[in-house]
Each structure stands twice: as structure tokens, then as C-alpha cells.
Amino acid sequence: MHAASSARPVQFMVEPLARLRLLLAALPAVAGIVLIAPGHYAVYTACTLLGLLMVKAGALFPKSAALMLTAELAGFTAIAYFFDGLLFLMLFSTLIAFYQLKPSAKLAAACSALGLASLLLVLGSHDLDMKAAFGLLWLATAVILNSRNELERKKDLTAHLYEKLEDSHEQLQAARSRMQTYGLQIEQYAQSEERNRIARDIHDDLGHRLIRVKMMAEAALHLHPADPDRAGAILAQVRDQLQEGMERMRHTVRKLSSFDEHRERKYALDRLVAESADALGIEISFSVGGYPRPMYPSMELVLFKNVQEAITNAVRHGMATAVEVTLAFYANDVSITVANNGALPVKPIAAGLGFLGMKERAAMLGGKVEWAQDEQFAVTTTLPLLGSNGTNGS
User: Fold this and answer.
1) Taking a C-beta distance cutoff of 8 angstroms, is the pair 198, 308 a contact?
2) Counting Cβ atoms within 10 Å, is residue 303 exposed (0-12), middle (13-18) or buried (19+)?
């Protein structure tokens, strides 16, 4: 479609030049015959026909066009030199044909200079004003033809860049579609993972708590006839256990419910910090550094899940009582570090399912997860920002 539309303007420009070239080659030869002596008609006719044949040969053999034009220039120069008249205009025909080949700037300058020298040689017997006039006409024609070629080059370049821009736009649209699909897959994966985590919490905590309450209630029933006071104490413990279980159940239900009712972001890190501090009973601080910029939902999701996992591990394995969460924006990436004051691991850390899950989530977005152990144990998740080359901007 593009090739067909771009070919028409070029054809429109080439045809008038081709006609002008033929006219400049034929008309001077026809007009000059009136100045030729009768005895020279045969030679003159043969030379002019040979010149016109060379013009035709250049069109029939485009691969040898440069060689043909060199011979044509020499032939037209000889004809115009020996027979005079208006035959010097035939040299302009060769000039037009040469620029139709779209030569380089250096070659165009060299050939134009050679043609100008041939023109001045042919006009040797004429006065200086005529030489100057047709010399300037030659240079003006060369400049116009060269400008035309430059214009066509720019048009071709513009058409090429436009096609590349269209291709890039299509690739960008395809990448955007893949990113949206990918973000949806990550969200579905995160939801599945969260459901599995909540199921484990219900099984490990609430399930065991209900079994213990059942056993305590049975013990109270057996003790009540013989020792009502002790049975009453056990029932009080059952009541406390049920109250605590209800609170745990409410917390689980809140985690399952959508935050859209409150028009809040689903994976807001500040809310995660506040809820984790309340639920775990520890001190958690949250700070942001660098120049904050919007992130894709898939990036927020990965950071949210990795911070959640790191805080849980800090309390479960390190018995931490204080956690520092630091979100930092750099030129090419964003990182979040979770450091805690818990016990430092003595043995080499073996990557469990939680840590492997953090690494997999980050790797899906081209990021990485690293841990460091100094005065505190810290886990850092780093994700590349849109358009970055993946290097750290710090």
C-alpha cells in the first residue's frame, strides 16, 4: 500500500524530465540542420543520429548508464564543437540524464564541473557574455536538479521513518497488550497464593484452636459433677479461646474482603504496614526516598506481596519486634528494603518456599531479590522502571 502511493509522485517527476531530455537532444539537432552546408548533411545526420542512439542506449542498458553518459557527453561535445549552432544545448540533456541517476554529492560536483568545462569549450568562439550566461544557466540547472534529488531523498527517508514509526507503534501496542495480560495473570496468581495462605492460616490456627476448645469443653462436662469450680474455670478459658478465635476470624474475613468499598488502592504499602503492625503487635516504620513516580499495578502487587512475606518471616523466624520498610526510587529502578531487629541467622540461609516465591515474583518483571546481614537482617526487592535498561540508578 505504501509502495504504490509513494511511487506515483516519483513517476510524475521523472516523466517531464525524460521528455525535456529528449527535446534538448533532438530539437537542437533538427534546428541546426539549417546552418549546415549541403555537403555536410550526411556526416551531420549520421553524428546526430548516433547521438540520439546513445541517448536511447542509456535508457535500454541502465546498468551501464554511467559509461553511456560519459560517452554521450564526449559525443555531444564533439558534435557541438565541429558543427556549432545550438547544438551545445544537447549537453544540458546529458546533465539532466546524469542527475536522474541520483549520484553522490562529490560525484555530482565532479561531473557538473566536467560538463561545464565541455560547455565552455564548445562556446569558445562566442562572446564572453554568452559564455557567462550559459555557464550560469548550467550551474543553475545543476543546482536545481541536485535540489530535486535531495528533496526525493528526504521524501524517501521520511516515508521510511514513517513506516518504522508505524512498526514501532504496532510493537508498542502489542507489548502493552502483553503487559496487561501479564499483569492480570500476576494478580490471579497473587490471589491464588493469598487464598492458599489464608487456608493454611485457618487450618493451622483456627482449626487447632477449635479442636482445643472442644477438648476443654468435654473436660469441663466431665469435671462439673465432681468439681464445679474447676469446670467453671475451664469454661472461662473456653470463652476466652472462642473470643480470640472470633477476632482471628474477623481478621481473616477482612483480608478476604475488597478494599474497593473504601476507594483505596488494593496493594497500598502504607496500609500494609499499618495493618501488619496492628495484627502482629510490632513496631513497623515506612519511608519513601528518591523521586516517587507512578508504578504499574503488577509492580505494586509484587512489592506488596514481597514486603508482606518479608515482614511475616521477620516475626516468625527472627522474632523481630521492630521492622523498617524503605521504598526508594532511582533513575532506572525502584527498590524496597525490609530490615528487622530480630535474631540474625547463625546457619547459612536456605531458601524456603516463601523466599523462592519472592524471587519468582520479582523475576517475572525483570527484577531481583537480595538479602544482606549486618547489624540487621534485610531483604531488598528491586524492579526496573518502564523504559530503563535495568541498571541501578543509584
Assistant:
1) no
2) buried
The answer as to whether 232 is a domain residue is no
Domain end: 126, 154, 183, which one?
126
Secondary-structure percent of the chain, ordered helix, strand, coil, rounded to 5: 75, 10, 15
Strand partners, 67: none
Q: Is 290 helix (H, G, I), strand (E, B) or coil?
A: strand
DSSP string over 106-168: HHHHHHHHHHHHHHHHHGGGS-HHHHHHHHHHHHHHHHHHHHHHHHHHHHHHHHHHHHHHHHH
Domain end among 103, 126, 149: 126
d(CA 24, CA 88): 10
Q: How many domains does the chain have?
A: 2
Sequence-distant contacts of 275-279: CB under 8 A, at least 24 apart = 276/308, 276/311, 276/323, 279/251
Give the DSSP letter of residue 336. Answer: E
Residue 254 included in any domain: no
Nearest to 295 by CA among 183, 177, 378: 183
Give tens-digit pLDDT for 50-85.
Answer: 777 777 766 666 677 777 788 888 878 887 788 777
Assigned domain for 381 exists: yes
Domain of residue 110 covers 2-126
Distances (CA, A) of 77 to 59, 94, 260: 20, 10, 88
Instruction: State if pTM tops 0.85.
Output: no
Q: What is the pLDDT of residues 250-279, one digit of tens each?
A: 666 666 554 444 444 545 788 888 888 887
Residue 79 lies in a domain: yes
Taking the CA atoms of residue 3, residue 8, residue 13 and residue 17 in that order, the dihedral angle to the nearest 10 degrees is 100
Write the CATH number for 336: 3.30.565.10
Q: Name the 3-class secondary structure at 368.
A: strand
The angle that helices 90-100 and 41-60 make with each other, rounded to 10 degrees, is 10
Question: In the structure grid, which three cell numbers stand for residue 250, read together?
Answer: 474477623
- Classify residue 253 by its DSSP letter: H
Q: What is the pLDDT of residues 311-347, one digit of tens each?
A: 988 888 888 899 999 999 998 899 999 999 988 876 6
**Would you call 384 helix, strand, or coil by DSSP?**
strand
